[in-house]
Specification:
Blueprint (H helix, E strand, L loop, with lengths): L6 E5 L7 H9 L2 H6 L1 E6 L1 H13 L14 E3 L16 H19 L5 E4 L4 H6 L7 H9 L5 E7 L6 E6 L9 H4 L2 H17 L7 E5 L14 H11 L5 E6 L6 H7 L10 E4 L2 H12 L4 E5 L4 E5 L16 H27 L1
Parallel strand pairs: 1-2, 1-4, 2-3, 4-11, 6-9, 7-8, 7-9
Antiparallel strand pairs: 5-6, 5-10, 10-11
Helix pairs in contact: 4-6
């Protein structure tokens, strides 16, 4: 019996950034080629121009030939000239939004089982008239989902241990975090995380470590009151997973760092819940900048993305690393069949 590969959409991201370059590099990898049926969502002209530029610069990394790549043309009207590489503007921002919207429409129509998104520049979306905090929020809105989360996943090349970190709040100012965090929000995020650990990762009795909001997790109310007022009680009575916390945010990451580098036998959780963006993303990027993958939970399809930005400053120079995008594609291909089966099971129970 032949293996049926999952169908994935791969967006170009901002066409003036490193997205087209890392797409060409990722699609040249035999492991990536073998894991899924991949369709690039964007403009073939952007891939062709990027390919010519990188070849002219003598880039040593293997590059996929644009003529052999399946492309879903979006008709964004963006045309990539060499002079525009690394110079994102409202037009490139608008094109990246069209790429994402087209991929979501295809996934919702059953054309794709998952979406992998190259990086965009949020401020260029805003210049183009799309005032969204990021791609995650667009994915949720277009899919009609109110409850969603950003789970960062990375497999250590040193030990094989897989780190999973979910953010309770994402792209909001730090001053708004204490106002946004509520028992209801944290409970929803725990539900998303516990459900994903069971359904996507096959962990029957998950353990989740949860950071405190304040330094030293409040230190019994001396450095903040949220832990004592409601967080500790919520975590102590949560029924769907074993919970560690609220833990001091600075020391919570010691065991994951030891597990990442294969140092001893630390007691690690199956996943970690950080209460705001930098509380979770600083350790993730410190340990796994080139390997971390953003997995969006709560959507009707799999969505992954690399954990880095558009890097306009190095676009077109041939030095962009495609490792995170490769990992995003491999994770999407791995999880897409499981997610589809779980979705069919849930529909059958309704």
């Amino acid at each position: 019996m032949s293996l049926v590969l999952p169908k994935l959409a791969l967006t170009l991201g901002d066409p003036a950034g490193i997205g087209p370059e890392i797409v060409l590099k990722a699609l040249a990898d035999p492991q990536v080629q073998a894991c899924a049926q991949i369709t690039v969502v964007g403009e073939r002209q952007v891939l062709q121009a990027t390919y010519r530029l990188l070849k002219a610069k003598g880039v040593a990394d293997p590059l996929a030939d644009p003529e052999g790549i399946p492309v879903l043309e979006c008709g964004s009207g963006f045309h990539l000239e060499f002079s525009r590489v690394g110079r994102g503007d409202a037009q490139s921002g608008a094109a990246s939004f069209v790429y994402l919207k087209t991929a979501v429409e295809g996934a919702l129509q059953g054309q794709f089982q998952g979406i992998v998104t190259a990086p965009i520049a949020k401020y260029l979306w805003h210049q183009a008239g799309y005032p969204f905090p990021g791609q995650t929020e667009v994915l949720a809105q277009l899919s009609g989902r109110e409850h969603y989360g950003m789970l960062f996943v990375a497999r250590s090349p040193h030990s094989g241990w897989q780190m999973r970190v979910l953010l309770a709040t994402t792209h909001i100012p730090l001053s708004q975090v204490p106002l946004t965090l509520t028992p209801e929000l944290v409970r929803r995020k725990l539900d998303l995380l516990a459900g994903s650990l069971r359904e996507l990762f096959g962990i029957g009795d998950p353990v989740i470590a949860v950071a405190g909001l304040n330094p030293h997790a409040g230190e019994r109310g001396q450095l903040g009151s949220e832990e004592q007022e409601w967080l500790a009680e919520l975590l102590g009575t949560y029924p769907h997973a074993r919970i560690w916390g609220p833990l001091p945010p600075d020391t919570m990451w010691l065991a994951p760092a030891q597990a990442w580098y294969g140092q001893g036998s630390p007691a690690v959780a199956d996943a970690y819940l950080a209460l705001y963006h930098d509380q979770g993303l600083i350790p993730v990027k410190l340990l796994a900048f080139d390997r971390a993958v953003n997995l969006t939970l709560g959507l009707p399809f799999i969505r992954t993305s690399p954990d880095h930005g558009t890097a306009f400053d190095i676009a077109g120079q041939g030095v962009a690393r495609a490792e995170s995008l490769k990992q995003a594609i491999l994770l999407a291909a791995e999880l897409a069949p499981t997610a589809a089966a779980a979705s069919r099971s849930l529909q059958g129970q309704r």
